[in-house]
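Deliverable D5.2: sample structural annotation.
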Amino acid sequence: MIVVGIAGGSGSGKTTFADALKKQLTRDCVIISQDSYYFDRPDLNFAERKLINYDHPSAFENQLLVQHLQQLHQGQTVNVPTYDFERYARADAVKVVQPTPVVLVEGILILADAKLRKQFDIKVYVDTDADVRVLRRVRRDIEERGRTVQSVYDQYLATVKPMHEGFVEPSKKYADIIVPEGGHNQVALSIMVSRLKRHIAELAQPAEEQMG
């Protein structure tokens, strides 16, 4: 199994890049989002949960993500949590993920955590201009997460921008590959697909030799 970490600022296109890789690799690949691993805080009411800084590294249960990646390496199936962004809480449902030759992990802060970085065989940072990222985030949060324009604006100034400058952008130095424009960068996508398909073929070769 090869694990690829895909980081980048909110709205950078890292999810699009991961989805494009998945489309090429089909059933040999699975995507895990760091967003699924926001800490659940049932001890707080809705108003209190809204005030949490969700762009700070402490908002994520990275220890559980590390554990799940290690279990996948060992051939075990894991139950990835799902997060309800309208309630700011984990949902009851889980996503059952089975081991595959390629595991893509995408998230804004996956390269900011040393223990998490150790799990990645390839570390990618998707680099996109701030104005493009902001516009994408506004559209996503309104259309997909039930937010208002004012709430997105307030959150961006209060936490998203300072956390990007304090944690996300500095984590770029840990990347093996920096990809401008994310999923729209067809050259980078082609190179990554070729590398990962070669890995899949290498995994399949011993099995074919045993059958022979």
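Annotation notes: Residues 21 and 192 are 8 Å apart (CA to CA). Residues 186-211 form the longest helix (26 residues).
The annotation will be released with the project's public dataset once the embargo ends.
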